Amino acid sequence: MSDIETATGIHDMGGTTGWGRAPVPERYEPVFKEPWEARAFAMALLSMRMSGTNLDAFRHALSRLDRADYLDDGYYGRWLHGAENLLYDSSIIAPGTVEARAANLSGGQVEEPSAPEPHRPDYKPTAAGSIRVVDAPRRFSVGQRVRAKRFDPPGHTRLPRYVMGHLGTVVAPRPAQVLPDTHAHFQGENAQWVYTVRFEPTELFGPDAERFGLNIDLYEDYLEAA
Amino acid sequence: MTEPRIPIALRTQALEELLVERGLVDPAVMDTFIKMYETDIGPLNGAKVVAKAWTDPEYKARLLADGTAAVAELGFKGSQGEHIVVVENTPDRHNVVVCTLCSCYPWPLLGLPPSWYKDPAYRSRMVREPRTVLAEMGLHLGDDVEIEVWDSSSEVRYFVLPERPSGTAELAEEDLVPLVTRDAMVGVAKVAAS
């Protein structure tokens, strides 16, 4: 379990270094390498309903994990830790219960905390999924030069640090979607237009960068006209 | 002294027992989700889309114009596929998909992502040095090939339409399906003729 409140930033991996060589795909890889991974996957999917939250809150739960919980238990271990955090945040399970049960499964005789009174957030989605219809006209058009804002996110965001502050070009309109920055914290859907913005790597990483196009989906609130 | 970490398999078992005992999850519902993604939904779906696009030019045009609707014609839709954008690979242009922030992936077409897609080295470096990363993964592209990287940071899901390999002109649609690999539909490999 993590008691870190704000996004630690480990998850914001784009453009970071030190992770080593690229993984070589295995020819045959099972969907779940161990049976526990399948169970963790299913519980994580169900944790959003149990906790009365949403996908953005789940992603934010992952981004709040400390380094060990994020990295050391593999991908589905990360999901399990994130799911637990949603359950603790909504008081579905008391912190310490899982540890106590694990100890008891290992031959211990630890008292397990009883079920707390649930306290789910005051939140109800207006529709399934994240895509919405909005009336407002688009602020930006294809071909327009835009700058990604730079800010220290107070909570969840889907604007990665590697594009913050940089200049790009709108290359495609995308459907309006709920804004994860507020939706993850049950502070409103703020549905808004999304755009694919293309950045030059020399802009992002300096004059010696490889030549390619970097296309990323950015919510309207993340952008300013350049 | 820090507490030793609880082994993740044990932790998972402990949580499931607690949730089931307290009536918070139904193990049968869990089993249904697991079966869905272990056996029912996987890259075979995407391969069918690709084979159809290769053999039916009008379908390919619909696929590139509105990926969500076109893949739904074949029955593929649902969670993590609510808005699909198909990007086409050509001899001059190679597309590759990543999710730097987590592991967003077009589940209805490809199932759950493989471990390499979720690897920090892939997530961090594909948006910074894609040509080098692809070469490390076994795909060597000519210097004249442009690379476009797509970071899946919203709920749009990107799907690569790979090039049809030469030497397959005689093959019928159903015989092309087995050639199309998951890796090619993410953009880290090309489809081979056999």
Stretches with pLDDT under 50, minimum 5 residues of chain B:
none
Tell me the name of the CATH class of the largest domain in chain B: Alpha Beta
Q: What is the rounded Rg of chain B?
A: 19 Å
Low-pLDDT windows of residues of chain A:
none
Percent strand of chain B: 5-15%
Shape of chain A: globular
* Distance linking N and C termini of chain B: 57 Å
Can you walk me through this structure?
The complex is a heterodimer of chains A (226) and B (194). Chain A contains seven helices and five strands; from the N terminus they run αααααββαβαββ. Chain A is an alpha+beta fold and 226 residues long. Chain A has two domains: 1-117, Nitrile hydratase, beta subunit (Cyclin A, domain 1); 145-225, SH3 type barrels (Roll), CATH 2.30.30.50. In chain A, α1 (35-51) packs parallel to α4 (74-89) and α2 (55-63) packs across α4 (74-89). The longest helix of chain A is centred in the N-terminal third of the chain and has 17 residues, at 35-51. Chain A starts with 34 loop residues before the first helix and ends with a strand. In chain B, strands 1-4 form a two-stranded parallel sheet. Chain B has a two-stranded parallel sheet with strand order 2-3. Helix content of chain B is 45%, strand content 12%. In chain B, 49% of the residues are buried. Chain B folds into two domains: 8-39, no CATH class; 43-186, Nitrile Hydratase, Chain A (Alpha-Beta Complex), CATH 3.90.330.10. Chain B is globular. The chains are: A alpha+beta (226), B alpha/beta (194). Chains A and B meet through α1, α2, α4, α5 and β2 of A and α1, α2, α7, α8 and α9 of B.
Give structural attributes:
heterodimer; A: 226 residues; Cyclin A, domain 1; 5-stranded antiparallel beta sheet; globular; B: 194 residues; alpha/beta; Nitrile Hydratase, Chain A; two-stranded parallel sheet; 12% strand
